[in-house]
Amino acid sequence: MSSISVETENETQLTVAEYVRLVKIKEQVQQFLENANIKGMLCESEESINGLTIDLTIKYSVNKREN
Fold first, then answer.
1. DSSP-assigned beta bridge partners for residue 66
2. What is the pLDDT of residues 14-23, one digit of tens each?
3. Per-residue confidence band for 55, with pLDDT thresholds at 50, 70 and 90
4. What is the DSSP letter of 36?
5. Which is nearest to 39 in space by CA: 59, 23, 58?
6. Which helix (H) or strand (E) holds 29?
7. CA–CA dist 22, 60 (Å, integer)
8. Distance CA 19, CA 35 (A)
9. Which of 20, 26, 32, 51 has the fewest CB atoms below 10 angstroms from its CB?
10. Does residue 67 surpass a pLDDT of 70?
11. Per-residue model confidence as pLDDT tens digits over 4-13
């Protein structure tokens, strides 16, 4: 069965304001996935080929540079 997972790296590098913004961005991406019915599309695709599994990973990575 298909899965959608979310990974976040180095979010501790963010200021409080940046972290709040990241949470809002994550919510927007989640809403997009739900509205576009990505999970349903993945499940339908898997059913079209016996044994097919589709895993989608969304990765947020923060790599701040010192100014």
1. none
2. 999 999 999 9
3. very high
4. T
5. 58
6. helix 16-35
7. 9
8. 24
9. 51
10. no
11. 999 999 988 8
Higher-confidence residue: 66 or 31?
Answer: 31
Within 8 A by CB and 6+ apart from 7, the residues are: 57, 58, 59, 60
On average, the pLDDT of the chain sits at: 91
Number of Cβ within a 10 Å radius of residue 42: 19
Segment holding 6, helix H or strand E? strand 3-9
Instruction: Give CA torsion, residues 16, 17, 18, 24, to 10 deg.
Output: 110
Residue 17 has phi, psi (to 5 degrees) of -60, -40
* Residue carrying the six token digits 């923060």: 62
Q: What whole-number distance in Å separates Cα of residue 33 and Cα of residue 29? A: 6
Instruction: Give the bridge partners for 26, in sequence order.
Output: none
